[in-house]
Design a protein that fits this description.
Blueprint lengths: L4 E3 L1 H8 L4 E4 L2 H4 L6 H15 L3 E8 L2 E4 L3 H8 L9 E3 L4 H7 L3 E3 L1 H10 L4 E3 L10 H4 L4 H8 L3 E4 L8 H10 L4 E4 L18 E3 L2 H13 L6 E4 L10 H18 L6 H12 L3 H30 L7 H4 L5
Parallel strand pairs: 1-4, 2-3, 2-7, 5-6, 7-8, 8-11, 9-10, 9-11
Antiparallel strand pairs: 3-4, 3-6
Helix pairs in contact: 3-4, 3-13, 6-8, 10-13, 11-12
Amino acid sequence: MHDYLAIHPEVAEALQARKAVVALESTIISHGMPYPRNVETARLVERTIRDGGAVPATIAVLDGRIRIGLTDDDLEHLANSDAAGRGVMKLSRRDLPVALATRADGATTVSATMICAALAEIAVFATGGIGGVHRGAESTLDISADLDELATTNVAVVCAGAKAILDLPKTVEYLETRGVPVLGYGTDELPAFYTRSSGIRLASRCDSPAMVARILRAKWQLGLNGGAVIANPIPQSAALDQGLIDDAITRALADADAQGVKGKDVTPFLLSRLEELTGGASLEANIALVRNNAAVAASIAHAYAELSAETALPPKPHLTRTRPWY
């Protein structure tokens, strides 16, 4: 299995030493933002994690291998591949084996990033927002694979809640049914991605990285498999007006329906349309919240690494048996 795994030397060294590492997805680079803001944001987020004293591990599939940690050239490739005539697949759980077997380049969504992070034993992952139950799912059955991944894979996801284009109440209900803790980070309510409040009260609140780390350790030591959502609100200074974003989402959803946009194309279409409808404000908010999530994830990864060091076991063999990095 680990013949498919290639861990960047810096990341491998940090994992061996039980230092803080934060996983990052790559779909936000290839499918979530326009060039060159996407690669600028990727570099900014990695720098934010380093400033927080952790090691960033951006994840993607390149040349038939799962890459845990990317070079700057890799980031540029993912960000500008279409301009060079090279498509990059959008990878969820179902797509990973196809990309690996066909040696296709692919950017990982939340679910695929969780799978790859777990293979490398990275416990904390920062993203913008998770996928969830889409509006109208009662007739379309359009539910993101992210939710089932959170129910089965032991990785904590720091995010600004689920993307605001989704049905947030149904998303929270689904997570509850699947036993996924949703921890409000400094908040009693689920953040609504572009805004700090959704009106949906959460069962649990955490006000420090140490508390989050203790909850994660207790969960996994009990053998309760699955991740956790660390719901971290967008900074107040970057939050959008509720009426503005609600109106834009309504219009974007109508446009998607009129154009017959389906499946994995829905989210990239809606994000792009929102950027147009808000005059770029949604993109700026997205960048701000991703950076904020990265900073919080770095602090949580530190706290979790310290707890893990208390009951440290010998290094895992697969960290030294993956194929050479190149």
